[in-house]
Amino acid sequence: MSGSAPPATPPTASRARRELTVAVGLCALSGGLALSASGERWADVTVVREPPLPPTAEVLTGSQAAPLVAACGLLLLAAAVAVIAVRGAGRVVVGLLVAVSGGVLGWSGLRAVTGSLDLDATGVTSEVGLGQAQVSIDPVATWPAVALVAGVLGVLSGALVVLRGRDWPGMGRRYERTGQPAGTTAAPARPARPARPETDEDRHQAAWKALDRGDDPTV
């Protein structure tokens, strides 16, 4: 009879691992894009001062125009690790935080892309020391669009964690398999076999082993 093939991995377990990998990847990608967008140019600011002072140009980054973008990026990167570390209800809570962070991130990017982001010009004029200066702000849509994409990815990742995360494996599974399960007792140790009486053959072999080692068996 030919040997039977090893049992295949259950489809549900394989699918759970794939879903976990996708969720963690989306969460990490969303956080990375958010942090990248927060340090880039979101708006060009032109300050027209009273003559004879020349106009000046400033740049507003994502962290200045929308401070929550960088915070959401850090939270999403931390959540990518937390999704793996926790299980059960804790994982659902992490998924909700990821979805909310993605929503805030996407909303900030959408407002900047559509030109409806509230960019306060008072801080710019106070920095140059001219309260009467005319300030014009021109939004740049490239990096806000990246933040919008990052927000969509964050919402998708959070929704996947909330809906499917309870069935995914966690970091502790490998240790649970090798350790003693909770609530069970250890198997009793096997009794030692009684020592066999030494025979003449045993003494003869011991003498030859002593000679091989260079010992005198007669001593």
Helix and strand element order: HEEHHHHEHHH
Known CATH architecture: Up-down Bundle
Q: Total domains, how many?
A: 1
Mean pLDDT: 78
Helix content: 55-70%
Q: What kind of oligomer do you see? A: single chain
Which CATH class is shown? Mainly Alpha
Which regions are unreliable across 5 or more consecutive residues at pLDDT < 50? 173-184
Task: Please list the strands of the largest sheet in the order they lie side by side.
Answer: 2-1-3
Indicate the proportion of strand residues. 5-15%
Classify the secondary structure makeup into a structural class. mainly alpha
Q: How many distinct helices?
A: 8
At the fold tier of CATH, the topology name is Butyryl-CoA Dehydrogenase, subunit A, domain 3
Shape: elongated
Give the end-to-end Cα distance, rounded to a whole number of Å.
59 Å
Q: Report the major sheet.
A: 3 strands, antiparallel
| Radius of gyration, whole Å | 34 Å
Number of strands: 3
